[in-house]
Design a protein that fits this description.
The protein has 114 residues and is an alpha+beta fold. The chain has 3 helices and 5 strands. The chain has a 5-stranded mixed sheet with strand order 1-2-5-4-3, covered by helices on one side.
Amino acid sequence: MTELATRAQAFSLIAQGVEAGLSAPWRLYLARGCRYLSLSVGDRAEWNAWRTHLNCPELSVRVYDAGGEIRRSSVAEVVLDDCRISVELVEEVSTDDLDRLLVADPTSVEPEER
């Protein structure tokens, strides 16, 4: 990985991922001073690809009510050169699909377990 001392180096990190075949994040937030970089992606496959590419060991899941809709936020994080990088996926889920709320990676649950 590259050092993330400058904004150009942080954007270069994203460009390297896209060049390697990953989908471009639909939203990118880079905090002043390059100490926090946040990527938002559109689906679980993109989230898995980016967290694998960045080697994000920290995973967290949060479920919340957003005006009557239940949303699940999956976040993978890593710290590189004192810069916290997070990859976030926000999905709408329903109460009919409660098993997705209870596992960190719903794609890893076998069909017969669902």
